[in-house]
Target: Dihydrolipoamide acetyltransferase component of pyruvate dehydrogenase complex
Amino acid sequence: NEHCIISVNMSFSVKKIFQTSTALGNTIWERSNKKCLRYNASILNQMLARQIHLCCNLAARVTFKLADIGEGIREVMVKEWYVNVGDKVSQFDNICEVQSDKASVTITSRYDGTISKLYYAVDDVALVGKPLVDIQTDQADEMQPQTLSTQDEEVQENEPKKSEKDELAKYLITNEVLQSTEEQTSICIPSVRRLAKEHKINLSLIKGTGKHGRILKEDILEYITKKPETKPVVPLEDRVEPIKGFKKVMVKTMTESLKIPSLMYGDEIKVTKLSELRKSLKDLSELENIKLSFLPFFIKAVSNALQRYPIVNASVDENCENITYHKNHNIGIAMDTKVGLGVPVIKGVESLSIIEIAKELNRLIQSGRDGSFSPNDMVGGTFSVSNIGAIGGSYMQPIILPPQVAIIALGASQALPRFDENKNVISEEIVNISAVADHRIIDGATMGRFTQILKKQIENPYLLFLNL
Model:
């Protein structure tokens, strides 16, 4: 007829974790209105040890659930963690702070132990009654069975008895509501945050009217009503136009050009002396009513170099089976016209003076502005020059215009530091040149030598007049 009831609370000492009512066949007596129980100590110790061992194994790791914090709240936002995985905690230590629609609540530990798992991250929504953390408890060390004293314990009848429910309630208070006024100014409740998110509102733009500046639902709604309406974006209608005129010619020419295996040779040319010569011819250019830029000088230098390397002034047939060497130096000038890219041709440059080249160039430039090129202006080119410097560019890789086999591009003039023959730093006017050739019939050495002849004439402009 042995009956034993043991109630264990893992947070109490052994003396507080059990109440026993038993009949062991030993003596039971009453003494002057004081009731005492004497037990067989050895048997009770064995029973208690078995119960403690079982409880320690089952409760070594405790899942700490989020308790009901009242007022019908079923979810809260995790505002801040005070612990990390691996931290030691004791009873009533702060674990985290959560934010409900009405208040901030600090959650405290019910156990002594080590944090083994956090179920939520900061700003996650935690549900009441669901796991919050796992704690590896230290109860195995605390709950060592103790030998019960065989001495009598007297219980005063007139001493008020505490029920088990009252005793447990004392130690199960875990939630402490903290109305932190400082933090309320910088955070709003989850329902307000959700409302702001739904309307894509930046909370930093709203001044809260709640206590200590907290943002209320009314603040969000007022902001929405005052926010200017965003006008719907009306898609613009696309415009479609046929490719025609110069653009259609360019489509055909550039498509064919990119089929040509080409090489590029680059260098820089000093134009300081040429600049001085051009200034000295200013009166003459005004007399002739022409604009004398660097370009007429370069065109003449190209013609002189073509005389030394006629392969550069050649053309090939469609299948590149025959080379035609041209006697005339018909130099095409790539221009940006009102109708697109145009390459009008200055014909017979080999027999023209620099002033005559400048006059013809000025005429073609004006025709490009007016869109009034004649058919004869656009045909017969044997070599081309692209003056990208006219719009400020320094470098460009030009594209050959078939059936021609070479082209050069000129950059804008720049004042750059360079060394003179005595290794002194001086300012030089520099123009970059890019020369491209059809690699099927012109090798890199030939194109390099051609460019060097051109460069030598520009850097020593008096050589230009030897071929007049």
Summary: Residues 259-467 form a domain with the Chloramphenicol Acetyltransferase fold (CATH 3.30.559.10).
